[in-house]
Amino acid sequence: MKGTHVNGRRVVVTRRPVAVHRTDGPLGLGDADGVAETRRLMGRQARIALSTVAVVVALLVGLPLATAQDDWLWVTLALQPVWVVLAVLQLRRAERAEREP
User: Fold this and answer.
1) Where are the membrane-spanning stretches (predicted)?
2) Is the pTM higher than 0.70?
3) The CA-based dihedral angle spanning residues 49, 53, 56, 62, taken in that order and rounded to the nearest 10 degrees
4) Using an 8 Å Cβ cutoff, are 1 and 13 in contact?
C-alpha cells in the first residue's frame, strides 16, 4: 500500500486516485474548439513527419542508386550527420507548429 502525507499525518491510500479532467491548457481541451485545434495540430505535425520520412527514404534509396555502389550500407552509415540534422529539423518544425496559432 502506498502512503501520503496530509496535514503532517501519514494517510494510507488503498486505491489509485481518480484522474481529474483539466480544461485549462494551451489548447483548451475541454471544449469543441480545443478538440478541433488539437486535430489540426496533429494533422500538421503528421504532415511534417511524413515530409521528413520522404527525405529519409529518398536518401536511403536514391543515394545508393545514384552512386551505383554495391556497398550501399557504407553510404547510409556515412550519412549519420544527416540523420541528426533531419531529427533536429523535425523537432524544431513540430515545436514551431505547436506555438503558431
Assistant:
1) 48-66, 72-91
2) no
3) -140
4) yes
Distance CA 42, CA 48 (A): 10
Q: What is the separation of C-alpha 32 from the centre of its chain, rounded to a whole number of angstroms?
A: 23
Element (H, E) at 91: helix 80-99
HSE on the CB side for 59, CA within 13 Å? 18
8 A C-beta contact, residue 10 and residue 19 = no
Radius of gyration of the chain (CA): 23
- pLDDT (tens digit, 9 = 90+) per residue, 10-60? 777 677 766 665 555 554 455 677 788 888 888 999 999 999 999 988 888
Residue 61: closest CA among 79, 85, 88, 43 = 79
How many Å apart are CA 51 and CA 94, to the nearest integer?
Answer: 12
Q: Would you state the torsion angle of the CA atoms of residues 81, 87, 89, 95, taken in this order, to the nearest 10 degrees?
A: -160
